[in-house]
Each structure stands twice: as C-alpha cells, then as structure tokens.
Specification:
The complex is a heterodimer of chains A (about 300) and B (about 300).
Chain A lengths: L2 H4 L8 H9 L4 H30 L3 H4 L14 H42 L4 H10 L9 H14 L8 H25 L4 H8 L4 H12 L1 H17 L2 H6 L7 H6 L9 H22 L3 H5 L7
Chain B lengths: L2 H8 L6 H36 L17 H8 L1 H32 L6 H9 L6 H12 L5 H10 L11 H29 L3 H9 L4 H12 L1 H16 L3 H6 L11 H10 L4 H31 L1
Helix pairs in contact in B: 3-14, 4-8, 4-11, 4-13, 8-11, 9-10, 11-14, 13-14
The chains are: A mainly alpha (about 300), B mainly alpha (about 300).
Chain lengths: ~300, ~300
C-alpha cells in the first residue's frame, strides 16, 4: 500500500506522474488540430453572411435573382450604390450621423457627470446604481405608446420636436444610453485612484475642477470606448426609429427596412444601403475591441 | 464586487458634518441632469402608459373612457397575446440555450494562447457588430427558398434538390429566427465566457489535476463554479435582449403567415400603430413589464446574488 491510496481514497494514481502528464499532454496534437478545424468552420460561419450581403450589393439582378444562386459576383458593379444613395441613402446617412452623434454627445455629457458622482461620492449608494441599470432592462416597446402621444402633442407646438424630427430620436436614444454610459464610466472612474484628487480638494480646488483636471484625463480611454459604444447602439436602433420617423428623419436601419416588402426585386439596393450602415460600425468596433466584454455587459462583468 | 475596495477609499476623505453634507449635495447635483431626463422620458411615460391601460383609447373613439381592468381581461384571453408570448419564449429559450452551449464549448477550446488567435478574435466578433436590421436583410436573402444560399447548400449535402419554404411556415420561420439569433449572439457568449475562463486561477486546475481530476471533473468542479456569476449575468443580459425580438420578425415574416410568428414586441407595435388601440397596447405592455420584472427579480435573487456569495 502506498501513501497515495491511503489518502482518503481520492487519488487513483500517484501524484507525480499526473503532473508530468499535464506537461507532456499526449492529446496536445489532437487538441491543436481540433482547435484549428473548429476555428476555420466557425470563421466561415461568422463571415459568410457578411460577405453575402456585400456580394449582393455588387451583383446585378440577373445574378442575385438567379436559381441556383450565384455565389461570387461575376460582373461586380457599383450601380446600386449610385442609385440608392441619392434616392434616400444620403438623407438616411446624414440623419443617422446627426442622431447617433447628438445622442452620444448628450448621453456622454450627462452620464459622465452622474457616473463620477456615483463612483466618487457614492451618491444614492448601491441601490440607486442598480435602479439605474434596471432602466435599461425594460423592453423599449412598452414605451412607444406614451412616447408617441407626447411627440404628437409636442409636434403640434413645434414640429422640430415632434414626430419625424431629429430632436425626438436624440432625446430617446440619450435616455436609453444613459444607464449604459453611467455604468461603464462608473467602472472606469472606480479604477482611477482617488488620492490625487482628494489632495487637490484639500488644497481648495472645486469638485468640478478636480474632476475635469485630474480624474477625467485619466479616464479618457474609457471615455472613448463608452462613447463609441453609445454611438454604435444609437446607430443600430430600429424600433423607435421606425415608429417615430416618416420621411424627413429616417435613419439608415429604417431605410434598409423600407425594402423589406419588395420580395427580392430590390435586394441589390437594399444590400448597398446595408453595407453603408454596416461598415462604419466595423471600423468603430476596431477601436473598442479591448473593451468588448465590459461594453456588451455594461460593466457588470469586468473585461 | 468593487464596492468594498472603494468604500475604504471614501473613508480617507476629511470628515465632519458640513463636509459630508456638501459632498452629498454636490453628488446629487451632478446626477440631477441625467436623473431628470430618465425620470421625464422613462418613468413618466411608464406611469402614463399605466393610466392609458385603464382606458379605452381607440382611433374611432373621440373620448377615452375609463374601463377599469377591461383591457387586462381582454389581453389575458387574447389568443394573439398568448401566441406572441409563446413565440417569444421559444425564441429566447432555444436561442440562449444554443448560444450558451456553443459559446462555452468554443471558449473551452480557445482558452489560452495559440498562433492566429489575435488575428481570429476580431473576425469572430463581427456578427455582434452587424446592425440588427442588416442581419435581418442578409438572412432573409440567405433563407430565401429560390435565391438563398441555405437551400442551395442543403441541396449539395443531400445530393438532391432541396426546396424548403423556410419563412412560409411557423415552425421553420421560428427555427430560422433562432439560427439567425445564434449566428449574431454566440460570439457574445463566447467572448464573455472566454474572458471569465481566462481569469480562473490556474493553481486551482493544478490542484485538481494533483487530485487526479480528469478533464470533465476539472470543468465541473473548477471552471464552472469559477465563472458561475459571469454565466448568470451573461444569460440575464442575453435573455432580456432576446425578449425584445422585433427586427428579425419585421424583416423575415412581418408576423405571418397569419399571425403565427408574432413576437411580443411585434404584436404591441401592431396594436399601437396599425390598429391604434393605444389603451389595449398599453395593457399588454404592462403585462410584459410585470412579467419581466418578476422573472428578472427571481432570477437575480436565485442565480446572480446566489452565485456571488
């Protein structure tokens, strides 16, 4: 009887060989092979639809309305881009930029101040923070009816604030971004040491001055990441945009969805518009890659 | 959590009643603009919606009489409400189960360093970053029975002509929505779980292997308990998000054939903006609010808080 078997019977084999085995893993080669095989399959699955919509955007109807489908565009053309952009693409792109940009600036301004207060001054405590977070859990659809009535009433006073206006969507997206911005920025401010700021306060600096000259500069990477996410979320939103816009303030997703009734005949133009909506997000995503986990879970899971 | 570490930090600040009061006022002043906006554009509308749900508010009627719980009674007996909840539930449960299992499998396979990881990871993340309505358009084209790549691929695999009308029947249309959601959101699960797995203390694995634990034991006794809170939070976020499913319904089926593929968001949208039954739409909305609040509270108490302890 060795000492190992006497050890409460939990060890089925001596400890030392087990350790060696983990170092010279006999399955290593198989694991590596499996890893790359799966990786390639997953990459193809992930990328194929994206390439398909890009491909459709440069195919002529003869190719995208062909059975069996033509996989690789034979005569790539930019005609759909040229047609759809003056039609409604340029307007939708401009609106999307104004609305997503406006909502981002506003929610970052208000959200950063609130986040700083939550992080440094513990305003409202933990329950308040969770209450703010819970605001984002609500499905947006439950608010469309009251929003509609308010916007309709506002529109009768001033059309620039009512339905089909930039201001309406900017305000709504700001509210929906705020909990996200506050939670994200709070987690970034938490990571900035408070000591320097506290000593500046003792030296007589105002709270706002200590914040803007000491803590804020240290949180710039977080600021950029959070702002980028806020922009992306506003850029992608569809439900509010389709309910509260008609013609003047349509955003890119609404313009893309406008083709949904057309049973295939306009897929080229729809895809061209879709690519215009999609590519800027990819570019921005490169910026915030490192912050993905935090961003997609509002900082609830630290990444 | 991070609360404990920062709580000690606040103790460093000079104390005294005036300082503490000033601090508190400053704190609330900084929060005020955001809070007012949230109250004004989120809480007030919610209350307004509650009031609306007790009224008959239709396009035809000039007046909006108070009808008590009539709208709620109608909603609970409405087969379309029932169907919409069912469809939404099926999509949420199936999509999240698949995303979680796939995401966990991939995370276990790709944890640690290997050549090509830095190149592959950003590409794997792309689906999450595609505008949802573009996802809808793209997969609408892929699922198309004549011009889509899916039937074509199945034809190659089966060796004969496959012509499935994916979006023309309830079951296959829901299946299509689930697969599409899985395509877009598995990378999210994967990424979150990968980050969590990478942060599990490697000494725990060594200890387990010293105890003679196999691969499965290590997964069950070390990895999963180590990341259980992250799993709970990731599933909560994904669940609440998937519950909103609207864009896919809009692009794939518009709720059809008939009303068989309506989701909750879609049905409320139809009630409000096709039939203009704003009172009734508000009642259905409020049932959703109540249901989700209860479910989320129970879930958080049971899984998120439980896993934290």
């Amino acid at each position: 009887m060795s000492a190992a078997t006497g050890h409460a019977g939990t060890l089925t084999r001596p400890a030392a060989p087990a350790r060696v085995a983990s170092r010279h893993d006999p399955w290593r080669a198989a694991r590596t092979a499996a890893r790359y095989t799966v990786l390639i399959i997953v990459l193809v699955f992930c990328l194929f639809p994206i390439l398909w919509v890009i491909g459709t955007s440069v195919k002529l109807p003869g190719e995208y309305l062909h059975n069996p489908p033509v996989w690789i565009p034979q005569n790539p053309t930019l005609v759909h881009y040229r047609n759809v952009m003056p039609l409604r693409g340029n307007l939708a792109l401009k609106n999307s930029l104004i609305i997503a940009g406006g909502a981002t600036l506003l929610s970052m301004l208000l959200g950063t101040l609130a986040a700083y207060s939550l992080a440094r001054l513990r305003t409202g405590g933990r329950h308040f923070a969770f209450w703010l977070l819970s605001q984002r859990m609500m499905p947006p659809v439950v608010l469309i009816v009251p929003f509609f009535l308010v916007l309709r009433a506002l529109g009768q006073i001033n059309p620039a604030l009512g339905l089909d206006s930039h201001a309406a969507l900017i305000a709504l997206y700001t509210v929906f971004n705020l909990p996200f911005v506050i939670w994200m920025m709070r987690s970034y401010f938490d990571a900035v040491p408070a000591e320097v700021e506290e000593s500046a306060l003792v030296d007589g600096a105002t709270r706002l001055r200590a914040f803007s000259s000491i803590t804020l500069p240290l949180a710039v990477p977080g600021l950029i990441a959070t702002g980028t996410f806020a922009f992306i979320f506003s850029w992608m939103e569809f439900l509010f945009a389709v309910v509260f816009t008609r013609t003047k303030a349509i955003t890119l997703p609404v313009a893309v969805a406008g083709f949904s009734g057309s049973q295939g005949s306009n897929w080229g133009q729809a895809s061209a518009l879709a690519v215009v909506a999609m590519l800027p997000v990819f570019a921005l995503a490169l910026l915030v890659q490192r912050h993905f986990v935090r961003g997609l879970t509002l900082g609830a899971v630290r990444g | 959590m991070d609360m404990a570490e920062t709580a000690t930090r606040t103790a460093v600040a000079p104390s005294g009643p005036t300082f503490a009061t000033r601090r508190r006022i400053e704190g609330w002043l900084l929060v005020l603009p955001a809070l007012l906006l949230i109250l004004g554009l989120s809480i007030v509308p919610l209350i307004q919606s509650l009031l609306l749900s007790f009224q008959r508010w239709d396009l035809q009627s000039q007046e909006h009489p108070f009808v008590g719980l009539q709208n709620y009674r109608d909603a609970l007996l409405d087969p379309r409400v029932c169907g919409a909840f069912q469809n939404t539930g099926i999509i949420v449960v199936c999509a999240i189960a698949i995303e979680f299992l796939l995401g966990l499998g991939l995370a276990l396979l790709f944890v640690g360093d290997f050549t090509g990881k830095r190149f592959a990871m950003p590409l794997l993340m792309l689906p999450v970053m595609v505008v949802p309505i573009v996802v809808g358009l793209t997969w609408r084209m892929l699922w198309d029975n004549q011009y889509g790549a899916i039937n074509q691929t199945l034809s190659w695999i089966a060796g004969r002509d496959v012509n499935i009308l994916w979006l023309a029947h309830r079951d296959t249309a829901l299946f299509a929505m689930i697969v599409t959601d899985v395509w877009q959101w598995t990378p999210f699960m994967f990424l979150v779980l990968l980050a969590a797995l990478s942060s599990v203390n490697p000494e725990l694995y060594e200890a387990a292997s010293l105890d003679g634990a196999g691969w499965w034991d290590a997964l069950r006794d070390v990895s999963l308990p180590g990341i259980s809170r992250v799993i709970a939070v990731a599933i909560l976020f994904r669940g609440l998000d998937a519950f909103k499913v609207f864009d896919l319904v809009y692009m794939f089926t518009q709720g059809g054939p008939g009303t068989s593929t309506e989701s909750i968001s879609w049905y409320i949208y139809q009630l409000g903006f096709k039939f203009f039954r704003l009172g009734y739409a508000s009642a259905v909305s409020f049932i959703v609010v109540i249901l989700l609040t209860v479910l989320a509270t129970v879930y958080v108490a049971r899984f998120v808080r439980g896993a934290e302890a």
